[in-house]
Amino acid sequence: MKDQKVSAAAIIGLVLGIIGLLLSAMPIINNFAFVLAVIGLIFGVTGAVKAKKGRSTGMGIAITAIILSLLSLVIVLASQQMYSNAIDEAAKTVETESGKMTGEKTEDLLKTDVDVTIGEFTATKDEYGLDVTKLPVTVTNKNTEKKTYTIQIEAVDANGVRILDESVYANGLGAGQTQNFEAFKYIESSKLEAVKSAEFKIVKVSQL
């Protein structure tokens, strides 16, 4: 028994387990830590088996190597899941914000971010007999921070065919701020009669 040496496998396993533990929470690098931990676990088990059979000493070192290696594996898997979730969440945020900027998230914006109220279109004559037209549009920023909105509105006939469209630009609306606009103030005389009986719809809303 006095001539027995400490298991080299146990020592190697302990070293690998320690290195794996130190690297286990680091992004990307923990892939290497995972490999080290697996190898460390194998050496730790080998050292424990040899110590149990009396071929060498170092059972405590072997057990420590096994524990450290297993702990490293757990941390690697947990941290990679955490990083993966963070990346997925960031990707969703980028996709959502991008969609808001391009108008792809119009329905979502109208539900949660901005309120757009379209009034009644009017067409009258001024003192010179010129047509005076307007469509009242009220825009309210429902966010808690300043936002800029571009609202595209179209006039469609009874068959749903677009007659013309126009955009309202609400620049730098503060939190909860409301601003009134007048759209469709300049309409070609050839389209005026059609616009008088048109239905006005919000086509797209983008946010900056």
Tally the helices.
5
Strand count, sense and barrel status of the largest sheet are: 4 strands, antiparallel
Would you list the SSEs in sequence order as H and E? Answer: HHHHEEEEEEHE
Structural class: alpha+beta
Number of strands: 7
User: Into which percentage range does the β-strand content fall?
Assistant: 25-35%
Shape: rod-shaped
Distance between the termini: 77 Å
Please give the share of residues in helix.
40-55%
Low-confidence parts lasting 5 or more residues at pLDDT below 50?
A: none
Can you walk me through this structure?
This protein has helices at residues 8-23, 29-52, 59-102, 106-112, 189-196; strands spanning 114-118, 122-125, 131-141, 147-156, 162-173, 178-183, 199-207. It has 208 residues and is of the alpha+beta class. Strands 1, 2, 3 and 6 form a four-stranded antiparallel beta sheet that branches. Strands 5-4-7 form a three-stranded antiparallel beta sheet. Helix 1 (8-23) runs antiparallel to helix 2 (29-52), helix 1 packs parallel to helix 3 and helix 2 (29-52) runs antiparallel to helix 3. The longest helix has 44 residues, at 59-102. The protein is rod-shaped.
